[in-house]
Input
Amino acid sequence: MGDKKKTGLVLTGGGARAAYQVGVLQGISTILGEAGWRPERNPYDIICGTSAGAINATALACHADNFEEGLHRVLHVWENFSADQVYRADSLGVIRSGAKWLSLLSFGWVLRRWRATSPNALLDNTPLVTLLNRMLNFPRLDAALLDGALHALAVSASSYTAGQHITFFQTEADIAPWVRSQRIALRSQIGVEHLLASSAIPLIFPAMPIFCNGRREYFGDGSMRQLAPISPAIHLGAEKVLVIGAGRLIEQPRDIATSAQYPTLAQIAGHAMSSIFLDSLAVDIERMSRINLTLSVLTEEQRARTPLRPIDMLIIAPSERLDEIAVRHVHSLPRPIRALLGAIGATDERGGALASYLLFEASYTGELIRLGQADALERRIDVLNFFGMTQSGALPLEGVIRTG
Output
């Protein structure tokens, strides 16, 4: 890889919203291909993911030796998704998990006799194990890291047991694990258990046990307590970072009636999830932009005395509200899931935010893919500048790449 700047890819969390990421990556591949980039070549030296973004990240990393093939495979999964590939969507499965969980939540003091067999979450995500084993080729990932087709892969999860945010990373490079306030990194052989942990949306999917720090700890979604989503890519050596968000970074307040209705359970849950999945990324981008600005006004001597370094960033996030798109597709969910979500108010406009994370159905994910492709193509010049290319071919550009 020579002395060129290492490029990092950061895929954030967001459940079914992660379909948007695949659309963006497809759009970027189209732009690069038209400019002369070899389609099988991996554009990203370092790939980092959280939650559903961790699944996308690992699937792409497993095909770092032929990026076009990997992207095509991931795209095929998202274009043909159905909820029963991620969680039990049949009546029996819903009764055993969701209906029973809601009953215990509402009448736990009456139903204490169920305590010994109480469900751990709203939905049973055991079908996801089958999907991950079908999607991922971990020996191929090991080979890509060994051959240099990929520099590093990182996925993040949150330990309910220790109260820490942990980034698990795999690389052949000599990179020391880092420690920060309430977040640490651990070198690990990444497997299905890490992805199940990273994507375990709180209360929706059950926690996942992982043996680390000499003991078994239970982990949930990596977006929780993720104070610096871009940080792992930088620690692993990235000097340029492409970040794909799962929600609009600047959201205008909604028009509300003179007398607002009391929020439904789904509305509250959706608001909480948006805080978990979206807010920390916006704050981290602002922080990185301030650091870049500060470094730009320092002298060369002053910059030499600080461990900070400028990071070229390109940020691509949805141009439309994904919760509004979700409301148009709620009807595509299996009837038992619609009934379950309807019981907490997640099938109307006010519950659209919650539905947007759980709508693993092709009609919805397909629209997000198309939106991602369109948003990427709108940023054609920014993409070419970020990768140091021109419209006519793979020619390096001079100058500083600005944050997108």
Q: What stands out?
A: The chain has a mean pLDDT of 86. The two ends are 25 Å apart (CA to CA).
